[in-house]
Amino acid sequence: MVTLRSQQPMVYVELSPSALQRLAGVPLSEVDAGGVGADAVLPWVGSLCDELSNHPAGHREAVMRVRLLEHLRRADRVVVSEDALRSLDLIETSGGTTPVETLARHAHLSSRRLRYVMQGSLGITPKFASRVARLGSAVSRAVAGAYSWAQVAAESGYHDQSHLVRDFRDLMHTTPTAWLAEEGRNLQGWQRPSR
Predict the structure, then answer these.
(1) What are the recorded GO MF terms, alphabetically (predicted)?
(2) How far apart are CA 127 and CA 163, in angstroms?
(3) What residue ranges define each of the domains in the chain, with the CATH number in brackets?
(4) What are the residues whose beta carbons fall under 8 Å from the beta carbon of 123, sequence distance 6 or more?
């Protein structure tokens, strides 16, 4: 996300791990994802923000695409493990419910080797990627409307509601109910799950 100026909309860009690694110029395992601004990883973001703020809102997406493609063309090719990327895709597709052993089998690696490959290439382990994907799945289910948090947990692959609460606390630093109370007013068409 890039803040242009107060009172202006945001520009949101979702990059694949390999694109981010190429733009950053370092392995993702060396990028601290916790609370750093985009300009700390991509120094040219500040000048891009200035450029975008000088364009009408309707043209910003096109300008952003052109600038990102220019930076990607100039960036050195960085080798990212295909096994790591395929495993990450499988994790995302399954909503984080595919066991690490199954991921490893699909990659023709041992579980230990897959952990090493993903940590080195992407900066995360398969278990952590699965936790994030499972929580994302739970958030989507809650936003779509659910009868209860227990239902959200069960349908998202959690053993029970307490595991869902633990992931909310560990990964989002809040509880499901507090998150929904905060975000609910920003979501259209959501229904509050019961406790």
Answers:
(1) DNA-binding transcription factor activity; sequence-specific DNA binding
(2) 14
(3) 17-74 (no CATH), 82-186 (1.10.10.60)
(4) 27, 28, 29, 30, 31, 33
pLDDT at 67: 86
Q: Which residue has the tokens 């242009």?
A: 4
**CA trace torsion 154, 164, 129, 45 (10° rounding):** 130
pLDDT tens profile 46-65: 888 888 888 887 777 788 88
pTM score, whole prediction: 0.65
Burial 3-28 (b: 16+ CB within 10 A, else e): ebeeeeeebeeeeebbbbbbbbeebb
Of all residues in the chain, what percent carry a pLDDT higher than 70?
A: 82
Average pLDDT over residues 160-183: 88
Cβ atoms within 10 Å of 40's Cβ, excluding its own: 12
> Residues near 145 by Cβ (< 8 Å), separated by ≥ 6?
189, 190, 191, 193
Q: What is the mean pLDDT of the chain?
A: 81
- What does the block give as tokens for 106? 């699909």
